[in-house]
Automatic annotation (TrEMBL):
Gene3D superfamilies: 3.30.420.100. GO terms for cellular component: cytosolic large ribosomal subunit. It comes from the Bacteria. The keyword RNA-binding applies. This is Large ribosomal subunit protein uL18. GO terms for biological process: translation. GO terms for molecular function: 5S rRNA binding; structural constituent of ribosome. The gene is rplR. Part of the 50S ribosomal subunit; part of the 5S rRNA/L5/L18/L25 subcomplex. Contacts the 5S and 23S rRNAs. It comes from Christiangramia aestuarii. It holds the Pfam family Ribosomal_L18p. This is one of the proteins that bind and probably mediate the attachment of the 5S RNA into the large ribosomal subunit, where it forms part of the central protuberance. Belongs to the universal ribosomal protein uL18 family.
């Protein structure tokens, strides 16, 4: 029986999460990508808390007339800005089982432009 895309992504995601753990000093930037939207969260896995989040559904980003790749860059910059306010400058990047390509790469580049180091 063929493996679905979702099952394949979850298998890759588990393999990635074995190595990447968000701590207080270096939290994890988690990315979720749907067909229309993209979401990013900065998570401290030790305490199990989300420290900052941003998505393409935020008012400033959703109101901008941009394609999905440009929205991903804006989400990256927004999450970097929120992280700076929370006192975070270094993170671990969790691509969530997606290829580091397209919108996921654009989000990462936007976060780097915003000043996050990973």
């Amino acid at each position: 029986m063929a493996v679905s895309k979702q099952d394949r992504r979850n298998k890759i995601r588990k393999r990635i999460r074995k190595d990447i753990v968000g701590t207080e000093s270096r939290p994890r930037l988690s990315v979720f990508r749907s067909n229309r939207e993209i979401y990013a969260q900065i998570i401290d896995d030790v305490e199990g808390k989300t420290l900052a989040s941003a998505s393409s559904r935020d008012k400033e980003i959703a109101s901008a007339s941009a394609d999905r790749k440009e929205q991903a860059v804006m989400v990256g910059k927004a999450i970097a800005e929120k992280a700076k306010k929370a006192g975070i400058d270094t993170i671990s990047f969790d691509r969530g089982g997606y290829l580091y390509h397209g919108r996921v790469k654009s989000l990462a580049e936007g976060a780097r432009e915003g000043g996050l180091k990973f």
